[in-house]
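Bumping with the actual sequence this time:
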Amino acid sequence: MAEAVTTITKLLVVREIQEDESGATLIFQNSCHGQLGLHDPNYALHLRLARRSQERQHPIGVSFGERHAIAELNRADNDVPTEISDENSHFVQVLFQGHDGVFRLKSDHPEATRLRSLLEAALRQKGQLWFIAQHPDLTLVDVQPC
């Protein structure tokens, strides 16, 4: 039985896009890079999101597959957290000002401490955060200050 590749989604800002006959290389502000394959069925959508990130200097959610292949690109949202509460030992509930639904930060997330710290700081300062969440359960995957 084949083992599934675990991918972590990070919020990154595209600094540069280099296109060639095989697709596009995205270079991010943190100097890491990823490859978009031309034959990926979502190539046009992913390239459009990457260009928007580059133009606006806004982060996008990036999931890497094997090597430097980009498995998924997703639009990030920004909002002000209005409430953070411990629902149980497995996750924290987060409410945002302009978003419907109850978002969750799972306690087993590899960066749960960092993410909770950023959420709490934004709550205290009434500041906006960029965030990316998995659907349908609205699990927070990454957050960063605006």
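The tokens above came from a reply further down the thread. DSSP finds two helices and twelve strands in the chain.
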